[in-house]
């Protein structure tokens, strides 16, 4: 099954080339969706696309958030022949070596394979206590309100079967930050798709800067009850 990894980027010049070349070892295509990074990430992506036949680039005019970047990448890929479409971070928080495990889960019958920090065998590394509590608490909060038996609802390392993204109403998804991860998983579950959690270890970035902000956190808190009330 042809698999393509979506890499949304904004100021990831320290990580992009290393990540793209690491993914090249796993027989996947890579789509870089760059939000007009001022640090030259888009130019690096263009150079890699000219050199490597498994790389393509989607240039976006401005930074709008994680959700809009992924939605643009999904729409772009759905015009092609990718059968599996993956999300992952470009900063090595997600290990490229885990990509084949998510692909295998979908090939074995899952509709969505979710790299999970909160199932047996999963975890985090280089996190302080406060961040652990906030992350685990966020997933627990979303799980409790939405009534889902998914341990890591805020996880952003995923593999979708094409049919899932074709079935979801992408135009109805408005989350911009990490709420996007909660929303896509919830919408897939409400449509009856099978979601399988694959244990991963999440490692905090060592290069570049985190995109987390208070606005992103508050969006996730406020968006969850809206999803419960509106998504059928």
- Measured distance between first and last alpha carbons: 30 Å
Order of helices and strands: EHEHEHEHEEHEHHEEH
Total helices: the number is: 8
Low-confidence sequence ranges: none
CATH class wording: Alpha Beta
- Describe the global form: globular
Integer tally of domains: 1
Which tags fit this structure?
Spore Coat Polysaccharide Biosynthesis Protein SpsA, Chain A; 8 helices; 9 strands; alpha/beta; 7-stranded mixed sheet; 232 residues; 18% strand
Characterise the protein shown here.
- This protein has a single domain, classed as Alpha-Beta Complex (Spore Coat Polysaccharide Biosynthesis Protein SpsA, Chain A), CATH 3.90.550.10.
- 40% of the residues lie in helices and 18% in strands.
- The chain is built from 8 helices and 9 strands.
- The strands form 2 sheets. It has a 7-stranded mixed sheet, sandwiched between helices.
- Helix 5 packs parallel to helix 8 and helix 7 runs parallel beside helix 8 (214-230).
- It is globular and about 45 Å long.
Task: Detail the topology: elements first, then pairings.
Layout: E1 3-9, H1 16-23, E2 29-34, H2 41-51, E3 55-59, H3 66-77, E4 84-87, H4 99-107, E5 112-116, E6 123-125, H5 129-146, E7 158-161, H6 162-167, H7 179-190, E8 195-199, E9 201-203, H8 214-230
Parallel strand pairs: 1-2, 1-4, 2-3, 5-8, 6-9
Antiparallel strand pairs: 4-7, 5-7
Helix pairs in contact: 5-8, 7-8
